[in-house]
């Protein structure tokens, strides 16, 4: 008799995350930071001695949002930092490939995002205004990544992401960090934004909270 395909991933914290029905109890920020620091943006097609990681991208987008939307509160900025957190499980698919894959990818991503938000005291879904602010900051970050790291001309990047104004790229974290630094910087921003009691340390290896 054939077995059902495995639909969960074992994390280094010892958690076992079910992709079909992800539970907030099986999500640890240390797993997210560790994974995102090892996932390359732009499929790795960037300049520099290190990949430009999703963890560094998250820190960049949160820095852009601080400038572009200064009225955002701490919890909202935490949502900005976590906007690509599901990619610690499913990786960073470039936008053209997402368009080809279609809706199933978005369904899985939405389930993971809801579980991540609930784990850290955020609403399961972002309110439309916050979602728009995250998208705007993400596009600004993408423009600078595209032109400074991924070989896009300014005109080409403007076509796909728009041309931002009022930003000094020299003040943004655009030089790719080593993996360990990307992980540490992501955790530092999480610690600054997370609600009291959100412990960034990993769970004891081999344990899983009751569901």
From TrEMBL:
Q: Which Pfam families match?
A: YfbR-like
Taxonomic superkingdom: Bacteria
The organism's lineage? Bacteria, Pseudomonadati, Pseudomonadota, Alphaproteobacteria, Hyphomicrobiales
What this protein is called in its record is: Hydrolase
